[in-house]
């Protein structure tokens, strides 16, 4: 330990190496439930690429595991510390190095906060679409690590679509540059995309070239109330089948709506079983909104309320963004699942989730990026009640099993981390797991980079799949 | 050899195993110049996944290299045979298995021709954007192998954006399934994207889940004539900086324009130094077209001619699509380069290319996906004249060097293959090359899959970098 911090300090300023257990303990975990976290030996806060290289060289020399961290808003335990590890927090590397409206790129350090970047590029008439719910806190490095999504994805896709090139410090401290800063480029294997979503298990991103888009017009939304989840999902099916390209197509179930009203007095319609929000950001959204309103009515909507203007549309979005914090107030703890199914299976997914909630006598609120088939069932429970905690855990897993059964994936945008590691093997199958372990070994032969996350490899410093806590 | 064909025939119908040298010889190469090609031992034309597995198991058992092929319209030699190899042609696996307008996906076999798929999805009101010039011949499997682009990319991106999941037969015959058929998914490392652009060197794609988009309105175009390449590039810069999203933004130099007129009597303006084509496919393209026309005039355009309607717009596109065949008629042979630079360096790229042509006393016509900074300098020469061939080769390489110097990439969309293998190492650098060789070894430890393409690995059956032919 003495050796480790001493060596780290040889290449880092004193204030960038934290060893006080009261302080380092606060870097132990991200926002995932049900995931074990260890006690870091040391937390480092580098400000330069060279400092990150020094950290990784030191880690390799001493065979100490490294856990890279952003803002720790992740929901899969990917940023949780392991006992005795170096926590490598990238939050001090927070400079926007370049915004170029001709190339439509931004070059950023990993610690830049998503919303800070979004506002900075907006001043140039540009937009960085990926908008996870935590966008006011989460960092671009974290977004890249987890391949984050958000509300925008139904029209604009996920983080992977916006990463053109990376500088990555490898486990042994070497600097790898991937990709390009041009609009196109196919020289060699796509190493850039391999790092997106790799949760810090292949290398540490220290710089990113991001693609930007011209800022679209402000979006105009409508809200539609449905007597059943099935009816709302039928509307989603029709909206997508008819070729509409909403900038947002979100669903909240009755539990969500009531929770949001209770938190923020939004006056959402409490008697609806499913509230669908649709928005368009085209120069003239009226024809699309009218067509979508008609499709909602045809599918059984009891009421369709168009927003008067952009400000009212923003309020509807705000209501949707409040769903998670609102549900978190219902019980002492929440488990947020992230199952993405084919759009035509969305109704089955929602109905199945409701059945799981009933079977376990639990409150499970569901909000969904409905246009993507990406549901977030939020299991609300009291961890102090062992039986309720057990039922919560069981329901969480049953929801993933249902997602796979319906042809979906265990994670649409939150990642695997610790939480879903065993499920990844079920989804991917043995051949893909072997290939993934082979790739991990190419980048991290000693198994020092975020060990035990995403997948286990022989010889790694895995902390294993945690029991329910 | 007897062993090889005998073993292959155990799992393939007789008509799927070709050994007549007159026939197999015709499978020797793709459309790249300057690339060596060997004589295949055998050509196989499987129709099922199981047959492909049988071919690869046989190849592994006998340690025979395998060269996967689509329509052989590639421009980098990636599909060229090596002496004694099995050519694995996927063109008979040409079924469209599924088109789903709700999920907005198509599931296809690798031999489906790009244009066939485009027409099939159009019947469902959908669109598969990637549109390489060879779209009437090239296959989806080849498009995936080379990460193809096209005219659409400035708005819709490249093939990588549209591949959601793959079935891949690995070198040892095992079947790997990657990705998903949902709109989103981040479970594990992005193996799907790793295969896109890997030129058959990591595995053989036997099925693909492709993302589709709603078909946009027919595009409306304009043509602008410029007195210099620099003026046209300044217009491109302004168009992109002002946030326009053209569905096409193409440039043809004077050599191209004259060649197209000579081939097809299109009546394009022969005195212009650079012709810029811009198009929009929005519901109301008029405001964008008017703004772009004004930007062109400001940048020095001598004439701006808007197309009257979609039919006239299609004619302009047709002129652009004829550029390559037209240039091919100028001299006995052509070498097509594919350098992509930052948009702000496009003028420097074009001027530098013109200087290279003058220095070597060669005709080099340039067409460019200008909105992407992706230039296609076409070196026209007579291979029967050794000095001219030498100068052609030298100019081709100088163009790549210039592209790298300007911050660009050696290949925007054609791939590395044999042609640019040494240049890949220069662009990517030693760390990236080591990582890429490591990845190759994970998938193909015996070096049997398309050996010598993209990169050389120890122990592979490389045919090396070819001398000028």
UniProtKB/TrEMBL annotation, chains A, B:
PROSITE patterns: FAD_PCMH. Its cofactor is FAD. Keywords: FAD, Flavoprotein, Oxidoreductase. Residues 36-215 form the FAD-binding PCMH-type domain. It holds the Pfam family FAD-oxidase_C. InterPro entries: FAD-bd_oxidored_4_C (IPR004113), FAD-bd_PCMH (IPR016166), FAD-bd_PCMH-like_sf (IPR036318), FAD-bd_PCMH_sub2 (IPR016169), FAD-linked_Oxase-like_C (IPR016164), FAD-linked_OxidoTrans_Type4 (IPR051914), Oxid_FAD_bind_N (IPR006094), Vanillyl_alc_oxidase_C-sub2 (IPR016171). One of its GO terms (molecular function) is FAD binding. Belongs to the FAD-binding oxidoreductase/transferase type 4 family. PANTHER family: GLYCOLATE OXIDASE SUBUNIT GLCD. This is FAD-binding oxidoreductase. It comes from Streptomyces cinnamoneus.
């Amino acid at each position: 330990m003495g050796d480790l911090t001493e060596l780290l300090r040889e290449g880092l300023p004193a204030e960038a190496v934290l060893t006080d257990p009261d302080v380092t303990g606060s870097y132990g975990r991200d926002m995932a439930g049900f995931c074990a976290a260890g006690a870091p030996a040391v937390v480092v806060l580098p400000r330069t690429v060279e400092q990150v290289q020094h950290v990784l060289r030191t880690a390799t020399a001493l065979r100490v595991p490294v856990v890279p961290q952003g803002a720790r808003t992740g929901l899969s335990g990917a940023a949780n510390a392991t006992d005795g590890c170096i926590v490598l927090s990238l939050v001090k590397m927070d400079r926007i190095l370049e915004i170029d409206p001709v190339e439509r790129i931004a070059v950023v350090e990993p610690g830049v906060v998503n919303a800070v970047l979004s506002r900075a590029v907006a001043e140039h008439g540009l937009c960085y679409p990926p908008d996870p719910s935590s966008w006011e806190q989460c960092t671009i490095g974290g977004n890249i690590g987890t391949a984050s999504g958000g509300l925008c994805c139904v029209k604009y896709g996920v983080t992977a679509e916006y990463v053109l090139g990376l500088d990555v410090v490898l486990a042994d401290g070497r600097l790898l540059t991937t990709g390009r800063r041009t609009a196109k480029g196919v020289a060699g294997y796509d190493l850039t995309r391999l790092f997106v979503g790799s949760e810090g298990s292949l290398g540490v991103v220290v710089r990113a070239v991001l693609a930007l888009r011209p800022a679209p017009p402000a979006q105009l939304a409508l809200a539609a109330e449905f007597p059943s989840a099935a009816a709302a999902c039928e509307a989603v099916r029709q909206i997508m089948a008819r070729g509409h390209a909403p900038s947002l197509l979100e669903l909240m179930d009755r539990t969500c709506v009531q929770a949001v009203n209770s938190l923020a007095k939004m006056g959402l319609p409490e008697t609806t079983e499913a509230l669908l929000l649709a928005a368009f950001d085209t120069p003239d959204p009226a024809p699309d909104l009218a067509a979508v309103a008609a499709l909602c009515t045809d599918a059984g909507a009891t009421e369709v309320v168009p927003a008067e203007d952009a400000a009212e549309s923003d309020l509807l979005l705000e209501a949707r963004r409040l769903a998670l914090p609102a549900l978190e107030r219902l019980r002492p703890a929440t488990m947020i699942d992230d199952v993405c199914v084919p759009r035509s299976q969305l109704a089955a997914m929602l109905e199945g989730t409701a059945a799981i909630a009933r079977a376990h006598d639990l409150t499970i609120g569901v909000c969904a990026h409905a246009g993507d088939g990406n549901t977030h069932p939020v299991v609300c429970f009291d961890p102090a009640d062992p039986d309720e905690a057990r039922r919560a855990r069981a329901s969480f897993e049953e929801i993933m099993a249902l997602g796979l059964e319906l042809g979906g994936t265990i994670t649409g945008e939150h990642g695997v981390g610790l939480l879903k590691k065993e499920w990844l093997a079920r989804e991917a199958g043995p051949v893909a797991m072997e290939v993934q372990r082979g790739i991990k070994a190419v980048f991290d032969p000693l198994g020092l980079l975020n060990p035990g996350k995403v997948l286990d490899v022989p010889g790694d410093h895995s902390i294993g799949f945690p029991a329910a806590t």
